[in-house]
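Limitations
The structure tokens in this dataset are predictions for the assembled complex, not deposited experimental models. Users should treat interface geometry with appropriate caution, especially where small molecules or nucleic acid strands are included. An illustrative entry is reproduced here so readers can see what is and is not provided.
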Amino acid sequence: MIPAAFGYVAPTSVEEALAALAEHGDDAKIIAGGQSLLPVLRMRLNAPEWVIDLGRIASLRGVRDGGDHLAIGAMTTHHDVGQDPMVHEHALLISKAITHLADAQVRHRGTFGGALAHADPAGDLGAPALALDAIFVVQGPGGSREIPAADFFVDLFETAISDDEILTEIRVPKYGGWGASYEKFVRIAHQWPIVAVAASVRLEGDTIAEARIGLTNMGSTPVRARATEQMLAGQPATEEGVAAAAALAADGTTPPSDLNGDADYRRHLATVLTRRAVLAAAGRG
Amino acid sequence: MTATQEPAAGTEIGRDRRRKEDQRLITGRTRWTDNITLPGMLHLAMVRSPFPHARITGIETEAAKQSPNVVAVLTGADLGEAQGACINAWPVVPDQVTPAHLPMPVDRVAFAGETVAVVVARSAAEARDAAELVEVDYEELPAALDLKDAAAAHENGGAIAHPDLGTNVSAVWRFDSAEAGTGGDVEAAIAEARENGIVIEREYRQQRLIPAFMEPRSTVVDPTGEQITVWSATQVPHILRFAIAATTGVPESKIRVIAPDVGGGFGGKLQQTPEEMITFAVARRLGKPVKFTETRSESLLTAHHGRDQWQRLTLAATKDGHVTGLKVDLLADLGAYVAIVGGGVPVLGAFMFNAIYKFPAYQFQTTNVLTNKTWTDAYRGAGRPEATFAIERLMDELAAELGKDPLEVRELNWIKHEEFPFTTVAGLEYDSGNYEAATARAKEMFGYDALRAEQAERRARKDKVQLGIGVSTFTEMCGLAPSRVLGSLNYGAGGWEHAEVRMLATGKVEVVTGASAHGQGHETAFSQIVADRLGVPFEDIEVLHGDTQISHKGLDTYGSRSLVVGGEALVRAADKVIEKARPIAAHLLEASVDDLEFSGGRFAVKGTDQGMAITEIATAVFAAHNLPDGLEPSIDSEATFDPVNFNYPHGTHLCAVEVDTETGQVKLRSYACCDDIGNVINPLIVAGQVHGGLVQGIAQALWEEAVYDDNGTLVTGSFVDYLLPTAADTISFDLDHTTSPATTNSLGTKGVGEAGTIASTPAVVNAVVDALRPYGVHDVAMPCTPERVWRAINSGGSGGETTEAAAPHFDESEGAAQ
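Predicted assembly:
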């Protein structure tokens, strides 16, 4: 468990980080909280010549109110995001997902942006970010650009961030008054989810006015359960009202088969967990 | 006698003393092997085969040798015979097929992970870097991977794990009660039951497990003194010394083995490992101290695995539920080599399938099979969990067939407490026990009747969450073991244990034991025993172990033997101290030996207030100014104890689970167990053993499985995929004890190290199956994953095989990994 030797730079500004990235290019890996990269290095699955550490860039940390959205700095730890009252008020789904994310040690070291940029489809943050239509802000040599969540996740471990860019901020529109639930299905507590469902709903009386649902580990990227979302709009927030829509949750998904479950089982789980997540988000769980 | 034991006032035995060793163990500020650093020490890294079976056609080491600070790169051919061999101590049959096991093979690898070259460098990091540069050319050979296929390969032309042997079958070992004269003819019993009774036929899988001890294995060898000193994270320093001497030609007297503090083993460090032998050989060759510490990945891949059996079982019974015969036919996967206990593991189970029951006829056969996978050997329980699982699952199946309560069917068949001592159909004599009392107490703690009522209610309203109740009434044979019995089974060593008590001049006491601890609490429990026996304060006793120069004789720690064998040796050594001190006390007190009474650490002259502490006698002996004529100036004593019998703890374990029938998720609801382990020395240590044992057994039922793919690659090669539970996954257990003291040791103790693991696995699986009986389910394969449970509910069967693939979570090449 000893990594191969590598060079290490710890810039204190995004500009310095971009310069280091430009200098070392393909030979470099960016490290944020290191909860995914360090195991890779220690198991020698990869041996970059340079590691660029974003940990000393203060501007990348913290959650601020951006008016119609929350702006979450990419280097904010899971713990800090999860404990943030603004996140709880305006993006409850993210708070809920973080309570299930890994364990306390990882939540204190791992970062919000790092986990999203790692783009593991079994990661707990992709589905909520997608469901809430988060905007990913990346900065490169030519300035910064915004990538909608729907375009951000490209494939397994692959995002729309270019090789010369760094993820700096995640903007989450405000969903005040929406209920939320993250139903994570695991065999043991510290496992990646076999399947998880992120659901947020807005109620009007006893009726579901709008629903937003993201699925974790149901394909090579996080996916939206759009057919379910559409069918839920206008349905009563009851077991019967939700069940038929939830049954569509796995439509069009291509989940993996592995030792924790084959694809057909995951598709089944997605429908059960979607029903439960929606009902819980509606306060009926 | 059956009652919960209370410690007598003023005694150490029975006190829940906190473990004196815990501060240094828990903080890590101690002598773990990897903490040892010697002047000029070099570090090793292993180059391992990625293929399960391949010819080595070339090893290119030049680039590695040129790497910074590399001292040597050595192959199997370079080390030759100096590397010794890994031994099998238990050829279970005279014609056992046993492949030669060189620590580092010369021309062919037999499992993925086997070492083909070793790099020696000035730092561990440099050794690791250079190991990446060693180029090995392999010519892949067909690999024997599936246990059933491998067992038949010599008949159907399948892959042979060691082609020159011509077969994968290492041994067929059989016991038949009619042949042995211990019972009737099992075939006749089965034939009769087919006509007029009930026959239950099942096939169960004992999945492969990984012991996954906390401290990875580590070895340091210093060849620079008169003796070669070996530090190793091992359970068996004495056996290791013997094996190194026997296979390298280095005289045993020139080898000192030290097992310093060892961080767990669970049987996984009951081995003479290739890595130890390679480290020894490299140190001798270079003449410098060297260290090898494995990575966690190496540990999971190459330290021996456990279990891995197919069990074909036939149980015959009368229509009222009396079992008339049991037939057991096992296939046991040995892996690539016959390990030190090796094929003896299934044989240890042979005597336990009849468990607590009075079966009139019994037959057992195991076919031990070589495959191209990691070798298997003892893992917590070693043979007995497999046996207990099989019979306790079958007893539940019989109860279901009869429509009776599973405890009622067991009671029909079990040995009544007034029938002890009882000789079983497998030929063992159980000395003591009370299954009725343990079961009654467990039922009471569990709230058995209320849970059965809730189960009926949930079934009636077709609740999506069903309740299951599982029973396991187990016994086991532990305290390995009577040497004569081991001899009759062709085991290569005895089963005695040695102890020594040294009375120091300052009144302190050193106790030396041959039972080498690896985290169980020997120092505390043994201090309590000696404190009571000699009447000296607990704090004044130091327990020494795990160094062949201090503890020169011993057979180490496994099979729940430390207390029941090693503890008894200690009692006898302490008693000898008292007897040696008695004439000296009489001399100094100017009294007759017959007038002395020893109690509370003092010799007192009957009827007077005259007396002398044994520690004062120790001081007087040290001075030796005034001793009886002709007496040697020492009261130090030693004893070697060879038990006359095994030791038979038992207990009743009850488990309730909630099964979510929509997802297949199994949730532990409650778990109560009443273990009868005879007299308890330290209740806190016992509780720790039971809690940990339960979790390990529950983990086999629900979570753990070593999975290989079709290429012979271990898919569960890290804790991402090999699912070890943590406290977050378990519940609080309800523990109690009944007390039927063992009659074969003077403390009346029984082993507890493996009890929880042996008992809990079938309790959990029985609970899962019990929950699903309304769905027509009568088996769920282990581990009972949610997917298997769901499939069993929806399509019958036992839930299917595990898919031999794992999802990547650590990206190798692409992605920012930001």
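Some entries come with short summary sentences. For this one: Chain A touches chain B through 54 residues (CB under 8 Å).
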